[in-house]
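Predict the 3D structure for this chain.
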Amino acid sequence: MRPIESGPEMDAAARVFEGCVGEEDAGTRLDIFLARNTSEAYSRTYLQKLIRDGDVQVDGREITTPGKVLEIHQRVRMVVPPPRGQTLEPEDIPLDVVYEDDDLIVINKSRDLVVHPAPGHYTGTLVHALLHHSSQLSTIIDHTRPGIVHRLDKDTTGLMVVAKNDTAHLSLSYQLQKRRMKREYLALVHGLPEVETGTVDARIGRDPETRFKMKVVNSGGKKAVTHFRVDKVLGRSHALLRCNLESGRTHQIRVHLAFIGLPVVGDPMYAPGLPDYGLTGQALHATRLVLEHPTTGREMAFEAPMPEDMRSLVERLETGR
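Done. Predicted structure below.
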């Protein structure tokens, strides 16, 4: 689906999306189609509310039934109303804190946790949890996303660094921009790589047909480079890869691995129709983070093991159980 400019008949802050149902989405429920093709991580409950409120049309007709089954080539139009005024309130949400001092917090993010508030996720985000955890968070970049230096997708687990003051935030953002902050991911994929190590150097841009998705593009887009190596071969049809980024594009690892025929297990957007083995999101985990401390300059390295559901699946595939 692609975003278009808001027309004069609606609030200029509203977002309007239009798209065409492709072959892979034919026969899919309307709410699932929208959830599958939403990079903004709108919750399915929120999308169902939009549908029931009359904010979604199919072929020009208002549809208020989330279970409406879509047909190929149908046109879907969704209006996301502007966010309502809101004050961020702390929420007592458990955090897995790996390290903390006066300048930064390193957390191991859980699955199904949205990083910051967005339509459909006005509460229950990592930002709300951080506000409860600490009264000191940087706001120099964006006061609606206090402390957030970089993001992980909703269902991607693993290590994130959070800035507790503006000086730390500027330092960490600079390290990220200059590629001095190193991030390593574990990705469980369908298929077996033909090489032990490899690099995907391919530009990434919005999918013109489904604008909530990203895709490899021949022109335009942004340069993106992903390095990978095989950590484990799991039976005859899966592998565990270690991935390192030279850039940080939206969905980069998921897009690049799908592009070379190794889609991430459990990825509803880039591995549709493939077995998810009961996972509730993509099997992608930020396992290692290396940075320079913003005050001391000392190199710091952190590691986080795979979440239990991903670890258990890796063992099952490895043993053939």
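DSSP finds six helices and 16 strands in the chain.
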